[in-house]
Design brief:
This protein is of the alpha/beta class. It is 47% helix and 10% strand.
Amino acid sequence: MSAQQRNDGLLPETAIILIGPRYPENIGASARIALNFGISRLIVVTDERPDEERMLKMATHKAAHLIQAMTVCTDAAEAAAPFQFIVGTTARQGRQRIPERTPREVMRDLAPLVGANRVALMFGPENTGLTNSELDLCQFTSTIPTADFSSLNLAQAVAIHCYELAMAIRRPSTPQVKESDFANSHQLEGMYQHIEEALTTTSYLMDYNRTYWMRSIRQFLSRVRVTKKEASMIRGVCRKFLWHHAARGDVDGRGLDGDNS
């Protein structure tokens, strides 16, 4: 990120991803909030484009261009594909979820990566939030601390996260990554597919524990912050292993399922 971009508060490589928003007005309000904090890209995951008039009503004329230029995707993986770092927001906690961290804590770690990387803040539907499979696409997860009533309006959640990111970036002590070679979501998902295939072939992963262990592997590698070169290397190792396993099966005269016919 250049000094001018940092001073102006512009985040050209940062986007808001809304997964299945129920109300077009919330999309418009989120666009207006995002623009206030220098975020000018909006991605919505939905089966069909929401009512534009209702979105524009809340976006106002200042953020109308975000609505008109917003990207519509059919699923979360497609929306996440170009980004190196994604923050998933959640109010729910569970045994397989990443330990709870506040937006301020998350943005403090994310801020040095902004500018040199494509970054997205991902929000789930108003009534259910992000699913575990959608959170699997995220390298960070954020939970807004609230009192007993934990439900916040979508636009409120967007506002809190955008504000905390803007404040973290503006801190003079925040270091900045000058150049980045981190793998994006598309590259990481390809790597995870190869890892899962290799571990399944060795019977390390079974149907009853596949989701648990793959989620643990994802969480570990998210902390490592895999580069494009490392993702390619891991995929190469997995491909070589699978090739040797298949070749050995051919030599033994049986298929990979142990069939001797």
